[in-house]
Specification:
By secondary structure, the chain is mostly helical. Helix content is 37%, strand content 8%. It contains 5 helices and 2 strands. The C terminus is likely disordered. Belongs to the protein kinase superfamily. TKL Ser/Thr protein kinase family. TGFB receptor subfamily.
Protein backbone atom coordinates (compact mmCIF):
# COMPACT_ATOMS: atom_id res chain seq x y z
CA UNK A 1 0.00 0.00 0.00
CA UNK A 2 1.33 3.43 -0.94
CA UNK A 3 2.67 5.65 1.87
CA UNK A 4 0.07 8.34 1.29
CA UNK A 5 -2.73 5.81 1.86
CA UNK A 6 -1.06 4.28 4.92
CA UNK A 7 -0.57 7.65 6.59
CA UNK A 8 -3.99 8.99 5.56
CA UNK A 9 -2.62 11.93 3.58
CA UNK A 10 -3.99 11.10 0.13
CA UNK A 11 -6.03 13.64 -1.76
CA UNK A 12 -8.55 11.47 -3.57
CA UNK A 13 -8.03 13.01 -6.97
CA UNK A 14 -7.65 11.03 -10.19
CA UNK A 15 -3.91 11.78 -10.39
CA UNK A 16 -3.25 10.84 -6.75
CA UNK A 17 -5.07 7.53 -7.12
CA UNK A 18 -3.15 6.76 -10.33
CA UNK A 19 0.11 7.34 -8.48
CA UNK A 20 -0.92 4.92 -5.72
CA UNK A 21 -1.56 2.39 -8.48
CA UNK A 22 2.03 2.90 -9.70
CA UNK A 23 3.30 2.12 -6.20
CA UNK A 24 1.17 -1.05 -6.17
CA UNK A 25 2.27 -2.03 -9.68
CA UNK A 26 5.89 -1.69 -8.57
CA UNK A 27 5.18 -4.05 -5.68
CA UNK A 28 3.68 -6.54 -8.15
CA UNK A 29 6.78 -6.24 -10.37
CA UNK A 30 8.94 -6.88 -7.28
CA UNK A 31 6.83 -9.98 -6.47
CA UNK A 32 7.31 -11.31 -10.01
CA UNK A 33 10.99 -10.44 -10.11
CA UNK A 34 11.65 -12.00 -6.70
CA UNK A 35 10.44 -15.32 -8.10
CA UNK A 36 12.27 -15.05 -11.41
CA UNK A 37 14.96 -17.67 -11.86
CA UNK A 38 17.88 -16.65 -14.01
CA UNK A 39 19.88 -19.47 -15.54
CA UNK A 40 22.92 -18.54 -13.43
CA UNK A 41 21.14 -17.41 -10.26
CA UNK A 42 18.68 -19.53 -8.28
CA UNK A 43 15.91 -17.58 -6.65
CA UNK A 44 15.47 -17.53 -2.89
CA UNK A 45 12.61 -19.10 -0.99
CA UNK A 46 9.63 -16.74 -1.05
CA UNK A 47 9.48 -14.11 1.66
CA UNK A 48 6.72 -11.51 1.74
CA UNK A 49 7.61 -7.84 1.29
CA UNK A 50 8.80 -6.18 4.49
CA UNK A 51 9.21 -9.58 6.21
CA UNK A 52 12.37 -8.39 7.96
CA UNK A 53 10.64 -5.28 9.34
CA UNK A 54 7.14 -6.36 10.40
CA UNK A 55 5.56 -9.48 11.90
CA UNK A 56 3.32 -11.80 9.92
CA UNK A 57 -0.08 -10.17 9.27
CA UNK A 58 0.99 -6.67 10.37
CA UNK A 59 -1.47 -3.99 11.42
CA UNK A 60 -1.93 -0.77 9.45
CA UNK A 61 -0.03 1.06 12.21
CA UNK A 62 2.95 -1.32 11.87
CA UNK A 63 2.94 -0.98 8.07
CA UNK A 64 2.70 2.81 8.33
CA UNK A 65 5.70 2.82 10.63
CA UNK A 66 7.74 0.56 8.32
CA UNK A 67 6.81 2.23 5.01
CA UNK A 68 6.17 5.87 5.95
CA UNK A 69 8.22 6.61 9.06
CA UNK A 70 11.22 4.37 8.45
CA UNK A 71 11.01 4.36 4.63
CA UNK A 72 11.46 0.61 4.14
CA UNK A 73 10.86 -1.04 0.77
CA UNK A 74 11.10 -4.72 -0.21
CA UNK A 75 14.66 -5.93 -0.71
CA UNK A 76 16.16 -7.49 -3.81
CA UNK A 77 18.21 -10.67 -3.52
CA UNK A 78 21.93 -10.15 -3.07
CA UNK A 79 22.67 -12.43 -6.02
CA UNK A 80 20.63 -10.31 -8.44
CA UNK A 81 21.96 -10.45 -11.98
CA UNK A 82 23.67 -7.16 -13.01
CA UNK A 83 21.73 -7.23 -16.29
CA UNK A 84 18.58 -6.63 -14.26
CA UNK A 85 19.76 -3.27 -12.84
CA UNK A 86 17.48 -1.27 -15.15
CA UNK A 87 14.44 -3.28 -14.09
CA UNK A 88 15.35 -2.84 -10.42
CA UNK A 89 15.78 0.90 -10.97
CA UNK A 90 12.33 1.10 -12.61
CA UNK A 91 10.74 -0.78 -9.72
CA UNK A 92 12.44 1.46 -7.15
CA UNK A 93 11.39 4.60 -9.05
CA UNK A 94 7.79 3.42 -8.65
CA UNK A 95 8.28 3.32 -4.87
CA UNK A 96 9.11 6.99 -4.42
CA UNK A 97 7.81 8.35 -1.11
CA UNK A 98 6.21 11.32 -2.87
CA UNK A 99 3.54 10.16 -5.30
CA UNK A 100 3.97 13.30 -7.40
CA UNK A 101 7.46 12.22 -8.48
CA UNK A 102 6.71 8.54 -9.16
CA UNK A 103 6.94 7.29 -12.69
CA UNK A 104 3.82 7.29 -14.83
CA UNK A 105 2.39 4.09 -16.30
CA UNK A 106 3.48 5.23 -19.75
CA UNK A 107 7.02 5.79 -18.51
CA UNK A 108 7.12 2.31 -16.96
CA UNK A 109 5.84 0.82 -20.22
CA UNK A 110 8.57 2.64 -22.15
CA UNK A 111 11.30 1.48 -19.78
CA UNK A 112 10.07 -2.13 -19.85
CA UNK A 113 9.96 -2.04 -23.65
CA UNK A 114 13.55 -0.78 -23.73
CA UNK A 115 14.65 -3.52 -21.32
CA UNK A 116 12.84 -6.28 -23.21
CA UNK A 117 14.20 -5.15 -26.56
CA UNK A 118 17.85 -5.29 -25.43
CA UNK A 119 19.83 -8.10 -27.01
CA UNK A 120 20.40 -9.99 -23.74
CA UNK A 121 16.64 -10.33 -23.19
CA UNK A 122 15.75 -11.50 -26.68
CA UNK A 123 15.22 -15.19 -27.24
CA UNK A 124 15.13 -17.24 -30.41
CA UNK A 125 11.56 -16.03 -30.84
CA UNK A 126 11.13 -12.36 -31.61
CA UNK A 127 9.81 -10.39 -28.64
CA UNK A 128 6.90 -8.12 -29.39
CA UNK A 129 6.09 -5.23 -27.07
CA UNK A 130 4.05 -2.20 -28.01
CA UNK A 131 5.55 1.11 -27.06
CA UNK A 132 5.21 4.75 -27.86
CA UNK A 133 8.65 5.60 -29.23
CA UNK A 134 8.00 9.31 -28.76
CA UNK A 135 8.06 9.01 -24.96
CA UNK A 136 11.38 9.10 -23.19
CA UNK A 137 11.59 8.81 -19.42
CA UNK A 138 14.27 10.58 -17.46
CA UNK A 139 14.82 10.30 -13.71
CA UNK A 140 16.94 13.00 -12.13
CA UNK A 141 18.20 13.07 -8.57
CA UNK A 142 19.31 16.42 -7.20
CA UNK A 143 20.30 16.31 -3.56
CA UNK A 144 17.21 15.31 -1.62
CA UNK A 145 14.84 15.94 -4.53
CA UNK A 146 13.85 13.43 -7.19
CA UNK A 147 12.25 14.58 -10.39
CA UNK A 148 10.64 12.38 -13.03
CA UNK A 149 10.00 13.77 -16.49
CA UNK A 150 8.31 12.51 -19.62
CA UNK A 151 9.25 13.97 -22.97
Amino acid sequence: MAPEILNGQIAYTREAVLQTDIYSASLVLWEIFSRYELSKSPYDEYKPPYFEHVKENPTMKEMCSAVCTRGFRPQFASHTDPDMAELISTIKDGWEEDGAVRLTAQCIETRLAEIINKDEFKTSQETSFSSNNNVKCIKLSTGNSNLAYEQ
